[in-house]
Amino acid sequence: MADVDITYQIKLIESLKCALLNDISSLFENMRVPGRENQNENLASLVTDAYLLAGRLGLGYESLDEQIIKRLKQKWASDAHNTDINALLMHWAARADVNKKGGPS
User: Fold this and answer.
1) 39-98: per-residue pLDDT in tens?
2) Are 19 and 44 found together in one domain?
3) Could you give the number of structural domains in the chain?
4) Do residues 3 and 11 lie in contact, with contact meaning Cβ atoms separated by under 8 Å?
5) Could you give the angle at which helices 83-100 and 61-78 cross, rounded to 10 degrees?
6) Does 68 lie in the same domain as 47?
7) Distance of CA 36 to the CA centre of its chain
């Protein structure tokens, strides 16, 4: 019985890895076409699948959020004038505050 569960878990992880590759492929394909809607959907799918894979690998979502904030701070430290990094860092920090208070994300 345990072998079946392990096999099932491996199959789910492999499926999510394939989904991530498909998300990236779809994003690159849609970047060649004018319009942002498909790109937005592709990026949302990519982030969602990354979180689902993290969960299947036993990583907590909060832990992933903390790593994202840490990485953004490192990037910001090397390029503090980059407004994209600064805006994204503020977004993730605000999300982390809301999540710690038990509010919706």
Assistant:
1) 899 999 999 999 999 999 999 998 998 898 888 888 888 876 788 888 888 888 888 777
2) yes
3) 2
4) no
5) 150
6) no
7) 19
